[in-house]
Amino acid sequence: MFISTLQLVNFVMCNSKLITHFLCSLLVLA
If you count DSSP H runs as helices and E runs as strands, how many of each does the chain have, helices first? Predict the structure, then answer.
């Protein structure tokens, strides 16, 4: 598994806004 820029951005947004937790879960699973 490799960490791409999108993964990092998603991680940051996840920590920034809990509202995006749902989207984060989908992106992590995808």
Answer: 2, 0
Question: What are the residues whose beta carbons fall under 8 Å from the beta carbon of 24, sequence distance 6 or more?
Answer: 10, 11, 13, 14
The pLDDT tens digits of the residues spanning 4-17 come to: 887 777 777 666 66
Would you tell me the crossing angle of helices 21-29 and 5-16 to the nearest 10 degrees? 150
pTM assigned to the model: 0.36
CA distances from 10 to 19, 20, 29 (A): 12, 9, 12
Number of domains in the chain: 1
Domain that holds residue 26: 1-30
